Structures are given as C-alpha cells and as structure tokens.
Amino acid sequence: MVDTTNTQEENTGSIEDIAKSLLVPDETAPQEEVKEETSQEPVEASGEQEEAVEEVQAESNEEETQDQEVQEQPEEELYTVKADGKEIQVPLKDLLRSYAGNSHIQAKMREQSDFQKKMEAEANALSNQRKDLQTKLDAVEKNYKSQEMKRPPMELLQTDPIKYMEEIEKFNIHKEEMENLQAERQKLALQENEKAEQQRVAYLQEQGQALVEYIPDLKDAEKADSIKKSMVQTAVQYGFTESDINSIQDARALKLLHDVMLFNQAKSAKDGNVQKSNPRPFIQTGAKQSPSANQTKQREKAFQNMKQSGSVEDVARWIAQGE
Q1: pLDDT, tens digit, for every residue of 96-155?
Q2: Is there a contact between 77 and 91 (Cβ–Cβ < 8 Å)?
Q3: To the nearest 10°, the Cα dihedral for 80, 82, 86, 87?
Q4: Which residues, other chains included, contact 295 with Cβ-Cβ below 8 Å and sequence gap of 6+?
Q5: Are 216 and 172 spatial neighbours (Cβ–Cβ below 8 Å)?
Q6: Measured distance CA(265)–CA(259) in Å, rounded
C-alpha cells in the first residue's frame, strides 16, 4: 500500500500555496510602477523649477537693466529765475519753452506794431496827398473865378454868329471845368469826413476798452446801469448836465467822475455811521454821569479852591486834575 500521506501533504501544501498566491496581492509590480512614477515626478518637478528660476532671473535682469538706465540718466540741471518777485528753480526745458513762448508773443507784438505803424504811415501819406490836392483845387478855383466868363449875348449871334459859337464853346468848357472842380472838392470833403468818423469810432472803442479796464464792473450789464446812473447824479450835483456827460469821450475824465462818485458814497456812509454810533447823550436827573463829566467838575472845583485859598497845595491839586 502506497503511503499517500506525504503526497496529500504535498498536495495540500500546493493547494494552500496556490490559494495564498491568489489571495495575497502581488506587491512587486505595483512597487515597480510606483518607482517608475516616483522616478518621473522628480524629473517633471526639476523642469518646472528650472523654468521658474529662468523667469525669476529674467525679471531680475530686467529690473537691473531699468535700474542701470535710471542711474545712467543724468539729473536735470535747475536754473534760478525770478518771477513775481520770487526766485524759483526751473529746468532748462521749461526755460526753453518759456523763451520760445515769449519770443513768439514778442514777435507777434512787433508784427502788430509794425503793421500799425505801416497803416499810420499810409494814412498820413494819403492825408497829405489830399491836403495837397485840396490846396491845388483851391488855387485853380480861385484862378477860374478871377477869369469868370459870362455867357455871350444873343445879339452877338445875329451880328457875328461864328464869334458867338466860339464864345459859347469857351463858356461851356469853363463851366464844365468849374463843375468838375466843385465835384472833386466835394469828394475830398466826403473822404475827409469819412476818415474823421472812422477815427472817432476807433477812438471811442479805444476809450471804451480803457474805461472797462479802469472800472471792471462795467462788464456786468446790471452793474453798469447802476454805475452810470450814479455817475450822472454825481455830475449833476457839481453843475453838469446830462448832455455834458454824454459828450465826454476821454476815459480818464469818466474815471475821475467815477472816483468822485465813490468818494462821495464812502463819505456819506461814514457820516451816517458816525451819526448812528455817536448819538447826542440824554442826561436824566439823578443819572450816573460819565467819567469825563466828573473829571471836569473836579477840575473846576480844584480851580475855585485854588483861587480862593491861593495855597500851594490847591495849586498842586488843580495841576494834578489837568494831567
């Protein structure tokens, strides 16, 4: 009989081993996978760290470059200038800008001044030409008047028709020339009147601007009406009429009238305040008198005592009351 105990034990062991091998998980393969994953993670981490380091280095390089550029830029030099009575520090670029602006303004002012001088010179030249022409016309007209021709009589036509025709032709020519002279004189007079009117209007505009600079409140329509009425009333108080005031064209005279108006208003206000603040005192019987009244009475009493006694002490008291 064959001994099967060992065989069963061996078979039993084999079955148990197989069962254990099936029940217990195989840890070898996962460990290898974990090892592989672990080996890959440090590689990826090292790559990210390198990129972060490169970015930090790039930012650091940019900051260093900016710092170097800032350090390389020279400090702007300041210059001391005086403006409105105060000394201030300004950079060169502001000085150049200010100089350029002032130069432009001065150039425009010179251009305007030159243009105005040119216009004045042309106006004066034209005025002189008109005066010369007027003088010549006067001389010609005077000469023609001295040689005034009369219309030939009709009798001459009957006696000598040819001579009559010659005389009538001369008369007509002379008459036409005189009419032309008179027309030219009227034209010159009209031009002179137009020029005078233009100058008058320009002068009034100039004086109006000057008056507004003297009295800025005239820019306000409401204030302007009140100021004008007050100025007229002030002028009337000094004997001027409204037509006299309207004929004033010089801004300086109107400014003077305005100053007088303000002075009178201030004086009236001051007088009113004095009367209100210093009313006449009303003293009642038994009322307490002011210190000045008491001092006056004491001084009078000391004076009477001095007169009566004549003593040195009363004299000293009277002097002391006066101090």
Answers
A1: 776 666 666 667 667 767 776 777 777 777 777 777 777 777 777 777 666 667 888 888
A2: yes
A3: 10
A4: 321
A5: no
A6: 10
